[in-house]
Design a protein that fits this description.
Elements: H1 4-18, E1 21-26, H2 32-47, E2 51-56, E3 74-75, E4 85-91, E5 106-116, E6 127-130, H3 137-147, H4 154-167, H5 178-189, H6 194-203, H7 207-218, E7 221-222, E8 228-233, H8 235-241, H9 253-257, E9 263-271, E10 274-281, H10 287-293, E11 297-298, E12 302-308, H11 311-325
Parallel strand pairs: 1-2, 1-4, 2-3, 4-5, 5-6, 8-9
Antiparallel strand pairs: 7-8, 9-10, 10-12, 11-12
The structure holds adenosine monophosphate and manganese (II) ion (2 copies).
């Protein structure tokens, strides 16, 4: 008998083989898994001889430009498309909102293939390949390529490894299952430069990035019981340090790393009316639930939400919701 996963894999294969022209999108402010998964789906479609366009609402992080055809992922904020698409593949997007402005290029009634690993995924696709137990969307794509009998090469392996490496925090988080390690081991056999990628993606910092971190940590606050720690960053911090948006990634781990802290928070001021909150849990609190309360989502230990309001009003509201889970 077919398992649910096998059924979803076969529906996914049919979606990919039965149509000819696809739009591939990932979530706003893409991370390593989002960018890699976009490229791996592109790689897969090239193997099938299909046409595709890879896009994101904004630019992809500079440090990911080493990935195969990364420069082909169009930044829709500067390069509009010349047509709409009837077949769209969304990777690493927990819900439809996460595709951002890319949805303007979905034709009316477009069919969506939703490939994702967030437990909060609401199955918005026409076809859904959603595996909450997977550490990364890249892990699901590894299974899909195996299922479809496609032999990897070094560029596809490097992209898959990048997704696994970044979403597991360098194979350290609790999502680092035996299956992840087995996949990583196979990928290394295709010539992936594991240590080089760790150095580039997890160790190296630019000087502005370090200055931004320093400045953010100067404003670190803790609740009286020491269980919640948070920092915030705004445009002024970026201007003062010369840092760019992607340099905010990783800052949230610092408040979380403090002994005794159960939940670390990073508040990124988007504009005067909106704040993006990143949440990290030491394990006791399910931050995906907190994020969902604010219309966001994620995983038990890593989640996020975009909240309308000013920083001053949002911080106490988020703290209150986290306290309810403690
Ligand atoms: P971040 O804090 O942006 O690194 O995100 C942590 C995790 O939560 C990632 O798996 C994100 O994909 C997910 N996430 C972040 N923001 C949202 C959101 N607004 N809605 C759903 N999931 C989110
Ligand atoms: Mn992601
Ligand atoms: Mn992911």
């Amino acid at each position: 008998m077919q398992t649910t996963y096998e059924r979803e894999l076969s529906q996914t294969r049919d979606f990919l083989t039965q149509h000819n022209h696809f739009l591939i999108v990932s979530h706003v402010q893409p991370d390593g898994d989002a960018v890699s998964s976009t490229l791996v789906v592109g790689w897969l479609l090239s193997c099938l001889g299909k046409k595709f366009v890879m896009v994101n609402e904004g630019p992809i992080p500079k440090r990911m430009r080493y990935l195969w055809r990364a420069e082909e992922i169009l930044d829709l904020s500067v390069t509009p498309l010349d047509r709409k698409f009837d077949h769209v593949i969304c990777v690493d997007c927990a819900d439809f909102k996460r595709v951002g402005m890319t949805h303007e290029w979905f034709a009316e009634g477009a069919q969506l293939l939703n490939i994702d690993h967030h437990p909060t995924n609401d199955l918005y696709g026409t076809v859904n390949l959603v595996v909450p137990s997977a550490a990364a969307t890249a892990e699901i794509l590894f299974d899909l390529l195996t299922y479809m009998g496609l032999d990897l090469d070094e560029s596809a392996a490097t992209a898959l490894y990048t997704g696994l490496l970044t979403d597991t925090g360098g194979f350290r988080y609790s999502n680092t299952s035996p299956k992840v390690m087995a996949a990583a081991s196979k990928l290394l056999e295709y010539g992936v430069d594991g240590p080089g990628l760790s150095e580039l993606l997890l160790e190296q910092m630019t000087l502005p990035q370090l200055r931004l971190l320093t400045r953010a940590l100067n404003g670190l606050e803790l609740t009286e019981d020491g269980k919640i720690g948070w920092v915030s960053v705004d445009d002024e911090d970026l201007k003062a340090t010369g840092a760019v948006h992607e340099d905010m990634e990783g800052i949230v781990n610092y408040p979380r790393n403090i002994q005794g802290v159960e939940v670390g928070l990073l508040f990124k001021v988007i504009n005067e009316q909106a704040v993006k909150v990143s949440m990290r849990s030491a394990g006791t609190v399910d931050v995906a639930r907190v994020a969902q309360h604010f219309g966001g989502g994620g995983h038990v230990r890593a989640a996020g939400a975009r909240i309308e309001g000013t920083l001053e009003t949002i911080i106490p509201r988020v703290l209150e919701q986290v306290r309810l889970q403690l």
